[in-house]
Every structure is written in structure tokens, then in C-alpha cells.
Amino acid sequence: MGSLTVTLILADFTVKPLVQSLNRRSAEPRFAARSGPFDQVLPVLLDPDHAAWQPAPSLLVVWTRPEAAVPAYARLLAGQTVAPDDLRRDVQRFADLLRTAAGRVATLLAPSWSRPPVERGLGLADLRPGMGLAHALTLMNLTLADGLAPAGNAFVLDSQRWLAQCGSRSWNPKLWYLGKLAWTPELLALAAADWPNSGSKLVAQARKILFLDLDETLWGEILGEVGWRRLTLGGHHPVGEALRDFQLALKRLKDRGVLLAILSKNREELALEALREHPEMVLRPEDFVGWRIDWNDKAANLAALLEEVNLLPQSAVFIDDNPAERARVREALPEVLVPDWPRDKLRYREALERLDCFDSAGLTAEDAVRTASYMAERQRRQSRTAVGSLAEWLGSLGLTIRVAALGADTLPRAAQLLNKTNQMNLRTRRLGEGELQHWAVQPGQRLWVFRVADRFGDYGLTAITGLTIDGDQARVSDFLLSCRVMGRGVERAMLHVLVRAARAAGCRTLAAEGLPTARNGPCLEFFRRESGWEGDGDRYVWDPARDYPVPGHVSLIDATRPG
Amino acid sequence: MTTAIEDLVLAAVRNALDMKGQPTDGLDGATTLLGERAVIDSIALVTLIVELEEAILERFGQEVILAGDGDVLGDQSPFRTVAGLVAHIGGLLDQA
């Protein structure tokens, strides 16, 4: 069971039902939520020493009514004409406050401003600039979203989604007048169920790979019976259109960094021909990181493919139209998420869009090319079988590692890696972008990021390590790398950088203390068996006076910037 | 009619306790809704009142105002117990 996310909710209305809903969650992530003092949003935001900040929250939710947070909007509500620039200016001031507050927490969430759906405003003129409330709110929400974007760890949540679900039950004037509830407990409960997968701190929960069946899932009909030309896909046919839209939605997921893989009971050459040749096919073979198209058990095939891409069952989702196949995978691999799947193909895209397990805080360059990166990995593995010893194979890779100090350009990817890496992670420290940036510039702290490439392609920024230097003592604060580059010598290059830095800082000892988790066994095992550091339990040391060599097959390029 | 009203009130109290994840057994006319031994907090009571007004309109076809003057939490509040609230609703329906 994971730790509790300490959450502070600042609001200008009663949020007790929201706090209760969050604290009652039994599923991960779980919360220790509390509300700040009633209607004291600005005083708390303006005062970092306010008692409401203790104990320090990692998640801050700021939920305000537009008339309370934006004076120009209050004037508009009072019937005055307000220039759009006045609204923008007030919202930008509020966004400045939120950005500052975001520096104190891992993640900040601000639900977008809304009006009760029963309010008609000015009717036809409600989207007119200067007078319409709908126009003003749209402008304000966009300005707020733009204003928070530079923070990296601060997000505007779309409250319209909850309002659309609750409809007229989202608001009741009596609840406001009697209990200062701006939204009904039903809407607040929806919000509490929706946002746990939001925010960079929580991205560690996101699933990384989606396994898909083919017949009656990616396309209609049984390929082996009708041939690829007669598959139902695209065209002027409701099911064909729906399945093409489903594939388009899958393609968007892939472009966001989610890996796609195929598990199908079919003849491989026929299935690949269908994927290549069907004119309406959106997903082509190159969109998949791998496949098992044969007559074997899908659970066993899924486990084998996971091993191939070095991911855990907790990272996987399985979609299949056949309930028996779903039950089999659920039984054999309970950590794989197997959603119930509609029988009606017109509902496939909706079922996919409802899954919140792929939610992420943002998109990095590494996400966009992840499938290509795994494809390159497959080529590497094929080359591995063609080369004799491990040393020969490593030597054939032409591995280049570029090390640099953490910078503004690498901060988003570094924070993402820090929060997503589980297996090869010494201390599993989770920090939002703001926290990481703040930590890295403190006296005595050093943090390096590593980009790895070889002759098959660029892995991107895939490793981070850091030191805390206190007098003549150096301690490893972070040591983590993506499972995609494990076992290539990157680990040793990272230790080389740490030893060199400790020596340069005049340290007499360098220690790495592992924090065991359910998943970081591979990292602790590396220190125990392969690092060469002297160990006792989970603590390992190296004398900085001794050099720690970079592996011979690695070319280390030092782009470390001063400071 | 009293039984029907009590059923509505107890269903609403159960719903409020469900929302808080609390047990719903043992509820009866003596169940305290307001004060030291109340089974629900003041915000849940407000929500319960609003829900009850809607349920009464649906069940009896009559609009009643259970709390319109804001005196929900005072000493003379009719919301102190389930039985008190049932009697209050019965009286309002009789007047309607």
C-alpha cells in the first residue's frame, strides 16, 4: 500500500464533503486531505508561514468562485461593463499567486471557474465581450491556464466535466444559503474521484502499455474466415466508422507515449498483412512495440512481451472483446488492468476515453518517440543474438552518454523520470518540478542528468543521479535510470560521475543508502553485486580518492555546466 | 402518513451516512441529528434537508420549506432527532 498524499484544499466555500470523499478512498493513490480556513484563500496563499501550511502538503488544491478570486468578474456580475483586459489583469495576478504557491508543493490543482448550469446569464449576449458572463469565464479560464503553464507542476482542472455529469444536480441555491456549499456533495464527490490521476506527483500511477486483441476489437469480423479485404473497418458503415475512430483514439494514446502491443489468436502473416494493406487501417505494424500473434495462451504471451520491453504487469492494460480471454488474464496476472469491455462496437472509443489510467501531466519529447525507441531496442536485442559474448555485444552498441547538470530545458523530463521510475531507483524520491528545481539549487546539492544513445537510436534523457555534500561527507541523494538502459554500463558511468564530483568537493567518504521498496530490488541488487562498492545491508560506500572507471565500451561526454 | 414520512427521513439519513462511509444500522426515531450525539455533521444535515424537500415534493406532490429562515441549528430546531423532524414535516404537510 502506498503512502498518503498530504493534501491541502483552499476554498472560499464549504468543501467538507470533498475532504471526506478524498479521505475515504480505498484505491491508490490515497489521501490525507484537509481544508484550509474557510474563505481565507488569499491570506493563506500570500503567507508562506500561515499555520495552514503545516503539516506541509504535497498536493495543493485551490478551488475558488470566480467572483471571489477575480474582482473584475464581481463587477461584471454586479452589472458593470468590464473590459476584457481588466479581467485578464486580475486573473494574471491570481495566477502569479498560484505559481508562487506551486513552488511549495509537488502539485497544484485549480478547478476551472464555472457557473451553475441553470444560470442563463445574458442569453443571446452571454458570449459578448465586455458584458457576457460566459465570455468572461472562458477568457478567465484560458488566461489562468496560460498563467499556470510555466510552473510545470500547476494545472487547471476542467470542472465542466463534472458539471456535465451532474447537470442540474450540480448546484442548489439552498445548499449555498444554508451551508455555503457552492457545489453539491454529488459534484464534489465526482471531483474527488476524478483528480487523483492528475498532476505530476501522481503520474507514477499511470499505465505505460496497452495490449490489444485484433478480431472484433481493432476490426470487425474474423480475419482468418473473411480475409483482410472483407474486414469491417472504416467506410460508410456505422461499425466500420466506430472502429476506425477507436483506432484513431489508440493512435493518439501512442503519440502521448503509451506503448501499443498486439495479443491475437491468429496467423501472424495474415494479421500483419491486414495491418499493412487494409486502406482504412489507422494503426500499422510500426505503431506497435511488439506482438504475439499465435494460438498460445494470451496471459503467457502478455507476460513474455512485458519481459521483452522490460515493464511490470502494473504498467499494463489489456483490451479484448472476448470475456473469457479477459477473465484468463485477470486470473493469471491480477496486476494487469483488464477493463470490462462493451459488446457494442459503437461504444469502444467511449470505453477507451473513459479510462483514466493513462492520464499524464504533460508530454515530453521522450514520450512522443517512445515506440520508436522500443523498436530500436528490439533491433538491439536481435543484434545481441548475432554477437557472441555480452562484452562483445556491449562493445558493438557504440554507447554514448552525455552528462549535464539539471537545467530548465531538462527539468520537465527529469521530474517525470524521477516520479515514474520504480525498478532501478535507489531511493524512490518523488518531487514535482518546482520542488526538484528548488532542491537542486540549494547549497551542497548536485544533480546530473544523462542522455544515452547508441548506434540504433537515441534513448533520450534516461538517468538521473545526485549528491548531497555536507563538509567532507557526500551522500547519494538520487540514483535512478530507465529500465530501457539497464545493464548497458550506464550505471557505472553514473557512479564515475558521483565519485569524481565527491573527490572534487574534497569529500573523504561517499555513501549510497538504499531505501527498499516493493519494486526497487534490481537497483539494490546492482549495488550489492555489481557496483564494486563496499556494502553493509543497504548502505554502500566508496573512497572518493579512488577512481571509479567508466566502462571501456562507453563514451562519456561531459557537458556539465559550472554551478 | 407518519410512517411514510419516517421512511423518507430514515432513507435520507442512511444516504448521508453512506456518503460519509459510516454504518447505517440502528437508526430509528430517537436517532440524534443535531447536537453532541448527532450521527451526522451540520453540513450533512443541510444536505439532508435539501434532499428531503425534493423527496417530499416527489412523494406527496407538495412543496414544503423545511428550512427557509436559516434557523436550522438553533435550540428550537425541529431537526434535533428523526422523530422531531418527522413531526415537523407532518405538521407542514397538514398546513399545506
| Percent of residues in β-strands of chain B | under 5%
What is the total number of structural domains of chain A? 3
Task: Indicate the low-confidence ranges of chain B by residue numbers.
Answer: none
- For CATH, the homologous superfamily of the largest domain in chain A is named as SGNH hydrolase
Distance between the termini of chain B: 14 Å
What is the name of the CATH topology of the largest domain in chain A? Rossmann fold
Structure explained in plain terms:
- The complex is a heterodimer of chains A (about 575) and B (about 100).
- By secondary structure, chain A is α/β, with parallel strands linked by helices.
- Chain A folds into three domains: about 5-200, SGNH hydrolase (Rossmann fold); about 205-355, Rossmann fold, CATH 3.40.50.1000; about 390-560, Gcn5-related N-acetyltransferase (GNAT) (Aminopeptidase).
- Chain A has 22 helices and 17 strands.
- In chain A, the strands form three sheets. An eight-stranded mixed sheet of chain A has the order 15-16-14-13-12-11-10-17, sandwiched between helices.
- Chain A is globular and about 80 Å long.
- Chain B has one domain (about 1-95): ACP-like (Non-ribosomal Peptide Synthetase Peptidyl Carrier Protein, Chain A).
- Helix content of chain B is about 55%, strand content about 0%.
- The model of chain B has no long low-confidence stretch (mean pLDDT about 85).
- Classes of the chains: A alpha/beta (about 575), B mainly alpha (about 100).
- The interface between A and B is medium-sized, with 15 and 15 residues.
Write a brief caption for the model.
The complex is a heterodimer of chains A (563) and B (96). Helix content of chain A is 39%, strand content 18%.
Question: How does the SSE layout of this entry go?
Answer:
The complex is a heterodimer of chains A (563) and B (96).
Chain A lengths: L3 E8 L4 H9 L5 E6 L5 H6 L12 E5 L2 H4 L1 H7 L6 H19 L4 E5 L21 H16 L5 E4 L2 H7 L6 H7 L5 H10 L14 E4 L10 H4 L11 H18 L3 E6 L3 H10 L12 E4 L4 H11 L7 E4 L3 H10 L15 H7 L10 H4 L1 H17 L3 H8 L1 E7 L5 H10 L12 H8 L4 E10 L2 E14 L2 E9 L8 H15 L4 E5 L7 H10 L3 E3 L2 E4 L11 E5 L5
Parallel strand pairs in A: 1-2, 1-3, 3-4, 4-5, 6-7, 6-9, 7-8, 10-17, 13-14
Antiparallel strand pairs in A: 10-11, 11-12, 12-13, 14-16, 15-16
Chain B lengths: L1 H18 L22 H19 L21 H14 L1
Helix pairs in contact in B: 1-2, 1-3
